[in-house]
Amino acid sequence: MTTSITHLAAASPAGRSLLTEPVVTRGRLAALLARWLPEQRWFAGRDHRIASLSVVTATELTPGCYHLLVRVEHRREQDGVHYQLLLGARTAVPPRLRRHVIGEVEGPTGSGLLVYDAVHDRDATLLLLDRIRRGGTLGHLRFESFPRTGVPSGLAPRVLDVEQSNTSIVYGDRLILKLFRRVQPGINPDLEVPTVLARNGYAQGLAPAAWFHTFVPFFATLGVVQPYLPDARDGWTLARESAVGSGDFGAQARGLGRATAALHVALSEAFPVAAAPVDHTVRLADAMAHRLRHAASLVPALRTYVPRLQDVYAEFARTGSDLPLQRVHGDLHLGQVLRAGGDWHIVDFEGEPGRPLAERRGLHSPVGDVAGMLRSFDYAARLGDAPRPEWAEHTSAAFRRGYAEVGRFDPHGIAAVLRAHEADRAVYEVGYEARHRPDWIAVPLAAVARLCRTP
User: Fold this and answer.
1) Which of 9, 106, 130, 380 is the most buried (most CB within 10 A)?
2) Helix (H), strand (E) at residue 147
3) Closest by alpha carbon to 151, among 221, 225, 205, 206?
4) What pTM was computed for the model?
5) DSSP one-letter string for 53-94
6) Cα–Cα nearest to 263, from 330, 323, 324
7) Nearest-angstrom CA–CA distance, 412 and 453
């Protein structure tokens, strides 16, 4: 692997320090990061070998704590991918940080420096929130907050230990900071959408309190601070408890359907809406078929279903859909909803992080969100030793009823459209599980078989 790394002293306005000495920047740090990054849950290129890694910007937040934007290039990709890192460097680390050490580099005096992931360092994360709270510019970073929105200081931080594509830090059970690990040019929808919805009076959202961004080498949102609901429970946990415990989730699912429809209505009123082009359904069906062929080339177990799934997509193309295109959530499932005080709150508007930002901020059919939630119900029902497909059927029907009560279309009335979107999602899941969680692949494969049989 070839590695290159910029001289951090030139990138950091704070001047020379332990990590900015040339002796440290001769490839050792880049080599450490190239080994460490593929092990991280939020790293998107674990399936491809890193061809090169370079530090694009480095800003010293305080001595021994650095904000980095690194560029990773893979052999199979022409364009590099940028990641946001918060690194610490010490001659010694306390026991609580030892498991977060990335490696050792030689310091300017010849002594060893331990480099570690500083999002797990209480002092570093306290400093980061304080810097966001104070606002202004530091190096290549700009910190902002909404007028009249107070971000208090001194809140104890803790990193959420959940599987996700970013890193979230909770402060004093009052605020949550989401760091977008994979960085793309432009405003992130998880800042844009809740902000616009709040300004338009949408009451069930969590309006951002502050954020920060970079403007080198391009403008990009790096992190968002929002209110934290300490007593909230996520929809996945609630649904799994119901499915495993033989409970009835119908009322909750109906309420979630109503909340999803209300979100779609609010999005259609806050953002532009466009009529679908006359060939939109045909082009979308072709894209679904293309994704199917690609997934089947990688997962042999999917190949037997290809002819019938192609029929499903062809029926969708013939049926068409007159639903307008609008802003949507883009990655809706039970893990993206919270229940607190008897209400559902839909969160995490980033969309699928692996997709281009322009696509995530584009206009799409709201049916995709509906299909995503139905697939999530199916997962909740089928994982484990005692699958409950009848639970998924009952819960999904309740969700569709709730959606029809508030939304601008009835999911029951667009069966061919919804089935094609569900099948497209299930095909994606087959490929994902084959790569990352092969023990779970039976769940989406069962859905593919069911959707092939559905008249």
Assistant:
1) 380
2) none
3) 225
4) 0.90
5) EEEEEEEEEETTEEEEEEEEEETT-SS-EEEEEEEEEESS--
6) 330
7) 17
Least confident interval from 23-27, 118-122, 216-220, 320-324: 23-27
212-247, pLDDT tens digit by residue? 999 999 999 999 999 999 999 999 999 999 999 878
Residue type, 244: V
**73 alpha-carbon distance from chain centroid:** 21
Rounded to the nearest 10 degrees, the angle between the axes of helix 306-319 and helix 415-436 is: 140
Q: How far apart are CA 402 and CA 396, in angstroms?
A: 10
Q: Assess whether 396 and 365 both reside in one domain.
A: yes
pLDDT (tens digit, 9 = 90+) per residue, 259-286?
999 999 999 999 999 999 999 999 999 9
Bond into 300 cis (ω within 30): no
Final residue of a structural domain among 57, 91, 118 = 118
Q: Is 306 exposed, middle or buried (0-12, 13-18, 19+ CB in 10 A)?
A: middle
Question: Among 412, 84, 75, 351, which residue's Cα sits nearest to residue 192?
Answer: 351
When pLDDT is cut at 50, 70 and 90, the band that residue 148 belongs to is: low
Asked if 363 and 272 touch (Cβ cutoff 8 Å), the reply is: yes
Co-location of 237 and 342 in the same domain: yes
Could you tell me the end-to-end alpha-carbon distance of the chain, in angstroms, rounded to an integer? 52
Domain of 394, CATH number, reads 3.90.1200.10
Whether 212 is covered by a domain: the verdict is: yes
What range does the domain containing 434 cover?
233-453
Side chain identity at residue 249, one-letter code: F
In a domain, 398, yes or no: yes
Retrieve residue 243's tokens: 């499915």
* Residue 179 DSSP SS3: strand
130 phi/psi in degrees, rounded to 5:
-65, -40
- Answer positive or negative: Cα dihedral of 439, 443, 448, 452: positive
Answer yes or no: are the C-beta atoms of 356 and 330 closer than 8 Å. Answer: no
Same domain, residue pair 335 and 427: yes
Query: Which residues neighbour 56 within 8 Å (Cβ) at sequence distance 6 or greater?
Result: 6, 11, 69, 70, 71, 82, 216, 217
Amino acid at 86: L
Structural domains counted in the chain: 3
State phi, psi for 276 to the nearest 5 degrees: -70, 135
Last residue of a domain, one of 227, 261, 283: 227
